[in-house]
Amino acid sequence: MFSFKQFSIQQDRCAMKIGTDGVLLGAWTPIENNPFSILDIGAGTGVIALMLAQRSNAEQIDALEIDEEAYEQSVDNFENSPWSDRLFCFHVGLDEFVEEPEDEYDLIVSNPPFYTDDYKSDNEQRDLARFADAMPFEDLIEAADLLLSENGIFALIIPFKEEENFLALASAYELYPVKITRVKGTPTTEIKRSLLAFTRKETIDFQIDTLIIETSRHQYTPQYIELTKDFYLKM
């Protein structure tokens, strides 16, 4: 059990446990467009969808999860939350979901699998959650283009080394960045992650900044505390 301020997560059946990436995305994702409908692609525990339920007034929050154990856990976490009437999880892969899209979404989020290296473990469930071949970036961008409403926002977190490639792929689908935050563990470490938000309208002077998580072990920066204080119990 992982407890946040307004909800709790069971994660014993999920290959990928609650991690900084998911929490960052859930807290950082822009919701200035007051989304009515949200889609979380690759729900895992459901934490990102739950964070967005807490942050927004969206009436329809859908999530996709292909792994059966994670799907069932996500459903349980949704049902046990204060927003169970707004959350729904589909046990389906992205490719199948986009074959007959019924809805457009004002906000699409994803913390996609992104270990593209050839290394695989002996745990197939964990590999599926961690490796990009389960959900190639181009498939993700194509789906976002198909499912995003006219004024919608598409937000995700990826390795920084993939940022340039991802921006180029998104541009080919006429999805343009409106906000980029690059994440460093400490002031002296390399940039590890990129938080990216896209819309269909091209923005010339969009916001690019850097987020540092901690100055030393468990000494969190004011910026990180401000971002996550509505969720973490100890912030």
From TrEMBL:
**What are the protein's GO molecular function terms?**
nucleic acid binding; tRNA (adenine-N6)-methyltransferase activity
Signal peptide start and end residues: none
Sorted keywords for this record are: Cytoplasm, Methyltransferase, S-adenosyl-L-methionine, Transferase, tRNA processing
Enzymatic reactions: adenosine(37) in tRNA1(Val) + S-adenosyl-L-methionine = N(6)-methyladenosine(37) in tRNA1(Val) + S-adenosyl-L-homocysteine + H(+)
Q: Which biological process, per GO, is one annotated for this protein?
A: methylation
Q: Where in the cell is it found?
A: Cytoplasm
Q: What is its EC number?
A: 2.1.1.223
Q: Which Pfam families match?
A: MTS
Q: Which family does it belong to?
A: Belongs to the methyltransferase superfamily. tRNA (adenine-N(6)-)-methyltransferase family.
Protein name, please?
Answer: tRNA1(Val) (adenine(37)-N6)-methyltransferase
